[in-house]
C-alpha cells in the first residue's frame, strides 16, 4: 500500500490573556471595623469576598462587595479595603498581566459563578501546597516556593488565573453584545411604531403616503425602514397601509351609512374601480357583495 502525504496545517494558538507573574496570593479573615491602610503598586490585584461584606476604595471611588463578588484594581491605583460592623473573608491575588484585553475588567464588580469559584479555589489550594508562606500574612511581599512543591504548581496557578480572567471577559463581552442588540431592537421597534403612527394619521386624513416622505420624517434611509418594517411586521410598508385601508373600508361598509364611492374617496383611493379591485383582492368579495353579506348577517 502506497503512502499518501497529508498536508496538515498548524493552528498557532493565540492567547488574549497572558499572566506573566504572580506577586502574592492571600486569604484573609477580617473582623469588624477592619481597615487596611492602603497601597499602590504597578501590577493588578483582584479582591474576592468569600463571605460577609466589605468595601474597597479605588482612588477616589468606593465600591461595596458582598459574598461571591470580586473587584479588579488596575496598576498604580491607590486602593484599600475595610469592613464596617461586619466580618468578611477575602481571597486576594496580585499578578502581572500586560494583555490589552484585561483593561475591560478594571474598576468593575463581578459576581462569580460556580465555574469561576472553582478556578479561584484551585489557585488558592495550589498556592498553599506550592509556597511556604502563610496566606494570611498581610506584610507578605514575596512568595517563597517550597522545595517539595508538586510538579507544575505554578503553571496551574497561571493557567487557572488566565482562565478566570477569560471567563470574566466573556461575561463582559456577552453583556455588551446583549446591550447592543437590545438597543438595536428598541431602535427598530421605535421605527416601526413611528411608521405605523404616520400611516394611521394619513388614513384618518384620507391622504396617501410614500416611502420618501416617511424616510424624510424619520431621518432613516428608505432601505433601512423597509427592512426593519418587514422584519417586525412581516409586511411591506405599502402593503400594511393598504391593509389598514381595507379594514377601515369594511368597518364603513358595515355601518351602511356611506356609498362605495364615498368610502373610496374618504380612504384616498384614486378611483372606485381601483378601490373595488383592491377590496376584492383582499376579501374575495366586491364592496357591494361585502355590504350585502353584512345585511344578511344582520337579518339572521
List the helices and strands and how they pair.
Layout (H helix, E strand, L loop, with lengths): L18 E12 L13 E15 L2 E6 L2 E5 L5 E4 L5 E10 L11 E3 L2 H17 L22 H52 L6 H8 L3 H12 L3 H19 L4 H7 L5 H12 L3 H13 L1
Antiparallel strand pairs: 1-6, 2-3, 2-4, 2-5, 2-6, 4-7
Helix pairs in contact: 1-2, 2-4, 2-5, 5-8
Name the poorly predicted regions.
Answer: none
The gross shape turns out to be elongated
N-to-C SSE series? Answer: EEEEEEEHHHHHHHH
* Share of helix, binned: 40-55%
Beta-strand percentage? 15-25%
Output the structural class.
Answer: alpha+beta
The largest pleated sheet is described as: 7 strands, antiparallel
Query: What's the number of helices?
Result: 8
Round the mean pLDDT to the nearest integer and report it: 86
Rg from C-alpha positions?
Answer: 34 Å
Summarize this structure briefly:
By secondary structure, the chain is of the alpha+beta class. Helix content is 47%, strand content 18%.
What does it look like?
This protein has helices at 114-130, 153-204, 211-218, 222-233, 237-255, 260-266, 272-283, 287-299, and strands at 19-30, 44-58, 61-66, 69-73, 79-82, 88-97, 109-111. The relative contact order is 0.09. α1 runs antiparallel to α2 and α5 crosses α8 (287-299). A hairpin with a 2-residue loop joins β2 (44-58) and β3. The model has no long low-confidence stretch (mean pLDDT 86). It starts with 18 loop residues before the first strand and ends with a helix. By secondary structure, the chain is an alpha+beta fold. Strands 1, 2, 3, 4, 5, 6 and 7 form a 7-stranded antiparallel beta sheet that branches. It is elongated, with a radius of gyration of 34 Å. Helix content is 47%, strand content 18%.
Amino acid at each position: 500500500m502506497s503512502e499518501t502525504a497529508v498536508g496538515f496545517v498548524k493552528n498557532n494558538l493565540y492567547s488574549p490573556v497572558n499572566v506573566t507573574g504572580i506577586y502574592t496570593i492571600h486569604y484573609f479573615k477580617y473582623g469588624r471595623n477592619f481597615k487596611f491602610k492602603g497601597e499602590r503598586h504597578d501590577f493588578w490585584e483582584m479582591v474576592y469576598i468569600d463571605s460577609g461584606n466589605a468595601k474597597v476604595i479605588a482612588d477616589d471611588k468606593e465600591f461595596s462587595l458582598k459574598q461571591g463578588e470580586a473587584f479588579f484594581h488596575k496598576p498604580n491605583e491607590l486602593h484599600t479595603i475595610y469592613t464596617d460592623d461586619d466580618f468578611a473573608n477575602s481571597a486576594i491575588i496580585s499578578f502581572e498581566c500586560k494583555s490589552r484585553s484585561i483593561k475591560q475588567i478594571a474598576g468593575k464588580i463581578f459576581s462569580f459563578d460556580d465555574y469561576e469559584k472553582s478556578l479561584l479555589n484551585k489557585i488558592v489550594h495550589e498556592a498553599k501546597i506550592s509556597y511556604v508562606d502563610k496566606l494570611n500574612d498581610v506584610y507578605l511581599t514575596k512568595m517563597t516556593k517550597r522545595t517539595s512543591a508538586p510538579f507544575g504548581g505554578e503553571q496551574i496557578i497561571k493557567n487557572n488565573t488566565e482562565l478566570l480572567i477569560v471567563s470574566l471577559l466573556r461575561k463582559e463581552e456577552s453583556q455588551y453584545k446583549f446591550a447592543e442588540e437590545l438597543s438595536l431592537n428598541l431602535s427598530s421597534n421605535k421605527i416601526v411604531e413611528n411608521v405605523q403612527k404616520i400611516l394611521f394619521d394619513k388614513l384618518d386624513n384620507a391622504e396617501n403616503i410614500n416611502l420618501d416622505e416617511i424616510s424624510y420624517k424619520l431621518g432613516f434611509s428608505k432601505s433601512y425602514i423597509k427592512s426593519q418594517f418587514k422584519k417586525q411586521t412581516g409586511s411591506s410598508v405599502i402593503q400594511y397601509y393598504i391593509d389598514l385601508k381595507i379594514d377601515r373600508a369594511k368597518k364603513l361598509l358595515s355601518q351602511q351609512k356611506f356609498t362605495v364611492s364615498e368610502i373610496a374617496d374618504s380612504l384616498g383611493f384614486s378611483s372606485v374601480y381601483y378601490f373595488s379591485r383592491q377590496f376584492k383582492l383582499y376579501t374575495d368579495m366586491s364592496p357591494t357583495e361585502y355590504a350585502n353579506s353584512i345585511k344578511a348577517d344582520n337579518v339572521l
